[in-house]
Amino acid sequence: MSxxxxxxxxxxxxxxxxxxxxxxxxxxxxxxxxxxxxRVRYEPGAEVPRHSHEHTExxxxxxxxxxxxxxxxxxxxxxxxxxxxxxxGVEHELRSAGGCQFFEALSPVPLDHxxxxxxDLVLGPDGGSRHVER
Length: 134
Description:
The protein is mainly β. The protein has one helix spanning about 115-120; strands at about 20, 25-30, 35-40, 45-50, 55-70, 75-80, 85, 90-95, 100-105. It is globular.
């Protein structure tokens, strides 16, 4: 587990390479002991197959474009201003024909969404002991 080198609670994503989890999907993240905030970008035609996060809850806020999302058996097209909550263990999938951007908050922190734990995590006395691998 990373001890975290980030000493300041202030950060920005300017000039930093995004993490690519899937083709045409990139994200920047910053997190602490219990929550991770990501700015996610889907290029046109991006798809994320059906999956779930066993230990992590996800809250999303779309601020640009559209994304079709299925959570469990319910499907919706999300547009700027829309939100969605995906409880832990619930299967979901996404696709965006024209591209989109959204913020997502995840808790506990899933380390597979963190490009550089030394720069992207601001850890307190807990040291990130509650973070999860996926």
